[in-house]
Amino acid sequence: MKTLSLLFLFLISATCKETKTVYVCNSEGAKKYHYKSSCRGLSNCQYKILETTLDKAKKDGKTLCGWEK
Ligand SMILES: [Zn+2]
To answer: What domain of life (predicted)?
Structure first.
Protein backbone atom coordinates (compact mmCIF):
# COMPACT_ATOMS: atom_id res chain seq x y z
CA MET A 1 0.00 0.00 0.00
CA LYS A 2 2.81 2.37 0.87
CA THR A 3 4.55 1.65 -2.44
CA LEU A 4 1.32 2.34 -4.27
CA SER A 5 0.84 5.79 -2.73
CA LEU A 6 4.46 6.67 -3.49
CA LEU A 7 3.91 5.73 -7.11
CA PHE A 8 0.77 7.88 -7.11
CA LEU A 9 2.73 10.86 -5.79
CA PHE A 10 5.35 10.31 -8.45
CA LEU A 11 2.73 10.34 -11.20
CA ILE A 12 1.17 13.53 -9.81
CA SER A 13 4.50 15.35 -9.79
CA ALA A 14 5.25 14.12 -13.33
CA THR A 15 2.01 15.54 -14.70
CA CYS A 16 2.57 18.82 -12.87
CA LYS A 17 5.87 19.40 -14.65
CA GLU A 18 4.50 22.22 -16.81
CA THR A 19 3.60 24.28 -13.75
CA LYS A 20 7.19 24.18 -12.56
CA THR A 21 8.49 27.52 -11.36
CA VAL A 22 10.94 29.29 -13.64
CA TYR A 23 12.51 32.75 -13.60
CA VAL A 24 12.44 35.41 -16.27
CA CYS A 25 14.01 38.84 -16.52
CA ASN A 26 11.36 41.55 -16.62
CA SER A 27 12.84 43.43 -19.58
CA GLU A 28 11.42 43.83 -23.08
CA GLY A 29 14.28 42.00 -24.75
CA ALA A 30 14.22 38.99 -22.45
CA LYS A 31 13.41 35.84 -24.42
CA LYS A 32 14.71 33.23 -22.02
CA TYR A 33 13.49 31.46 -18.94
CA HIS A 34 15.66 30.02 -16.23
CA TYR A 35 15.28 27.15 -13.78
CA LYS A 36 17.35 28.87 -11.11
CA SER A 37 17.16 32.47 -9.95
CA SER A 38 20.92 32.25 -9.43
CA CYS A 39 21.57 31.32 -13.08
CA ARG A 40 24.46 33.20 -14.70
CA GLY A 41 22.14 34.09 -17.58
CA LEU A 42 20.08 36.11 -15.10
CA SER A 43 23.04 37.86 -13.54
CA ASN A 44 23.03 40.22 -16.55
CA CYS A 45 19.44 41.18 -15.86
CA GLN A 46 19.20 44.92 -15.16
CA TYR A 47 15.50 44.71 -14.33
CA LYS A 48 13.41 42.81 -11.90
CA ILE A 49 13.57 39.01 -11.91
CA LEU A 50 10.07 37.57 -12.06
CA GLU A 51 8.91 34.19 -10.87
CA THR A 52 6.55 32.48 -13.31
CA THR A 53 5.61 28.98 -14.42
CA LEU A 54 7.21 26.99 -17.22
CA ASP A 55 3.87 26.82 -19.02
CA LYS A 56 3.39 30.59 -18.95
CA ALA A 57 6.98 31.30 -20.00
CA LYS A 58 6.51 29.05 -23.04
CA LYS A 59 3.24 30.75 -23.94
CA ASP A 60 5.07 34.07 -23.83
CA GLY A 61 7.43 32.64 -26.47
CA LYS A 62 10.39 32.27 -24.13
CA THR A 63 12.96 29.54 -24.57
CA LEU A 64 15.29 27.83 -22.14
CA CYS A 65 18.42 29.78 -21.32
CA GLY A 66 21.57 28.50 -23.01
CA TRP A 67 23.44 28.06 -19.73
CA GLU A 68 21.06 25.38 -18.50
CA LYS A 69 21.25 22.67 -21.15
ZN1 LIG B 1 19.50 30.62 -17.18
So the answer is: Bacteria
Which residues lie closer than 8 Å to 28 by C-beta, 6 or more apart?
none
* Number of folded domains that form the chain: 1
Query: Does 49 map to a domain?
Result: yes
Task: List the shell of residues around ion ligand 1, using CB closer than 5 Å.
Answer: 34, 39, 41, 65, 67-68
Residue 54 lies in a domain: yes
Kindly give the distance from the C-alpha atom of residue 19 to the centroid of ligand 1, in angstroms, as a whole number. 17
Segments forming the whole domain that contains residue 53:
19-68
**Could you tell me if 34 and 68 are in contact, meaning their C-beta atoms sit under 8 angstroms apart?**
yes
The per-residue pLDDT for 47 is 86
Taking the centre of ligand 1 as the mean of its atom positions, its distance from the CA of residue 25, in whole angstroms, is 10
pLDDT tens column, 20-58: 999 999 988 899 999 999 999 999 888 899 999 999 999
Per the domain annotation, does 42 fall within a domain? yes
